[in-house]
């Protein structure tokens, strides 16, 4: 369980993230989540987050219009984790919407 801390983490937050920058933003969230895991458990997160990070295509990591992780405002761990959750929910919702839209166009 997370305890109160003065530590802060780069938080893309609820910024509007373009589809072209999704992977780079996701990599930022994963990297910061690794830091939180390390700081709260004292262990590296090899079993969970590193394989995830290694499987995220970094095709847009060189996109000049994508902000680097360090450009985002910092937030406490609780705010960061809520934002990460919202980011993933929004992506899942967008993907579901796009799949339904594609199915209708083929009907």
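Q: What amino acid sequence fits the structure above?
A:
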């Amino acid at each position: 369980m997370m305890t109160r801390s003065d530590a802060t983490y780069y938080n893309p937050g609820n910024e509007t993230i373009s589809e072209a920058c999704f992977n780079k933003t996701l990599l930022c969230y994963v990297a910061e989540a690794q830091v939180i895991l390390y700081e709260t458990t004292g262990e590296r997160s090899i079993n969970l987050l590193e394989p995830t990070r290694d499987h995220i295509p970094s095709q847009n990591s060189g996109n000049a219009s994508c902000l680097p992780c360090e450009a985002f405002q910092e937030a406490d761990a609780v705010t960061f984790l809520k934002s990460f959750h919202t980011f993933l929910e929004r992506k899942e919702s967008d993907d579901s919407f796009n799949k339904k839209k594609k199915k209708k166009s083929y009907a």
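Q: And what stands out in the fold?
A: The two ends are 48 Å apart (CA to CA).
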